[in-house]
Amino acid sequence: MSPLYPYLLLLVFLNVNGFLWVPSVCQESIRLNMIHRHHPKFEKKTGVKAPESPMERLQQLIRLDEKRIEMVFRMREHRRKVAEAVVNMTTTEKQQKRQVLSLPSSVQLQLYSGSYSYTNSYVTTFRVGTPPQRLLLITDTGSALTWANCIHNCSDCSRKHRRRRIFDADKSTSIRSIPCSSEMCQVGLQEFNAYYDYCPKRKSPCWYDMSYSGGTTVIGFFANETVTVKRRNKGHTRIHQVLIGCTDPTGNTDFSEADGIIGLGYSPYSFAYRAAMQLGGKFSYSLMDVLSSRNVSNYIVFGEDNKKMQMQYTELVLGKVGTHYALNVRGISVGGVMLDIPPYVWDVEMGYGAILDSGTSAFALPEMAYRPIVDALKAALEGYPPVTVTGLEYCVIVDNTTTFDESRVPKLVIHFADGATFEPPVKNYVINPGEGGRCLGFMPTPWPADSLIGSFMQQGYLWEFDLINGKLGYALADCT
């Protein structure tokens, strides 16, 4: 055997971001069930009751969408400011930043999220530590950091923090804090507002201090920890060296419905990236109709989804629009006619573009894209009595003596730059909240802003994120 063989083998296991990972031999997938906030199990786990009527449920989701849109707009503004700061950096400063860790452009951007933005999302049971401690965390494709309400070196925590679920770091034998003197803290984790100026000892933990648009601040320290997840068939898989944030639970009232967040965004530090790279480089999810009364959970799979279906593929743009999963959109047609939407609305190179966002319900677009779409579709709702749903411009009531004629609705198609198309069923954009209601499921956003393809448009499909090859797969699916 050549003396160089061990080193060549090591290079095979280094991914493009310079992080060491060992491919799974059997490539067995793992699965997490996701529960929407209006699912009966959500009330059982959190004590938060969903609105009784379908129309009230829709109204609540749209109110939360407005907060989410505000958050994404602030994120875009923050990305712009960071990009300007990078442009103004000296050549030496840029080289030093690159040499420490070869990170994609997405992790050059500081995370700025909104506490209200997460209340529209899905939750899942997550087991952290050794032995595993069960937590209820929010799944969000727009976030990269996984964090949980956590206690550490706290002698009176049982009296001080009266929470049903909290991660006790002192009871885990596998947690390892990230030193504040490390290059990871001083460079890599700056996207999470890591600070290291106060470092009394070299091994003192690396801390973070994140501000949220709802006014909440979360403070904690970074650590590597072991996560235990169920396999698709049976048994469990342990994923080691997962970056988590141990967050002080004091004052986190805006996150009272859950115990923290699972970062599913694109970053070498996100749980999605870590789990996907251990299981073949892919993850996928499928969402049920969020206004459906069916008692069915959604799911997310890391690794290959075993369901056999005819997939379509388009380019998955990574690292261009923050930690989001962006798409190269060429345009949108309604009734076979391409709408007059300025091309720069979809320009991911400028930091805009369309993103798949599990934390938004409606399809949110800048005004210059929103207006042509609703103008092309609103004729399908004419003749029915209008009803007011705050945040949605076109809603009607179909009374008991008539039925809604879906054939009147022209087909909407999203056209991608590589020639692929996405043609959702009418129910994904003419929303049926029940009680005879019908609404165009679109919301306007301020410009400049990203276009958010929310869960209404995504429902009923399997979405496969291939992080190695930069591809998005999608196919109609029974999301059970």
UniProtKB/TrEMBL annotation:
Swiss-Prot/TrEMBL keywords: Aspartyl protease, Glycoprotein, Hydrolase, Protease, Signal
Molecular-function GO term, any one: aspartic-type endopeptidase activity
Signal peptide (residue range): 1-18
Ranges in coiled-coil conformation: none
Pfam families in alphabetical order: TAXi_C, TAXi_N
Active site: 140, 357
Domain Peptidase A1: 122-475
Domain of life of the organism encoding this protein: Eukaryota
GO biological process: proteolysis
Similarity comment: family membership: Belongs to the peptidase A1 family.
Protein name: Peptidase A1 domain-containing protein
Organism of this sequence: Nelumbo nucifera (Sacred lotus)
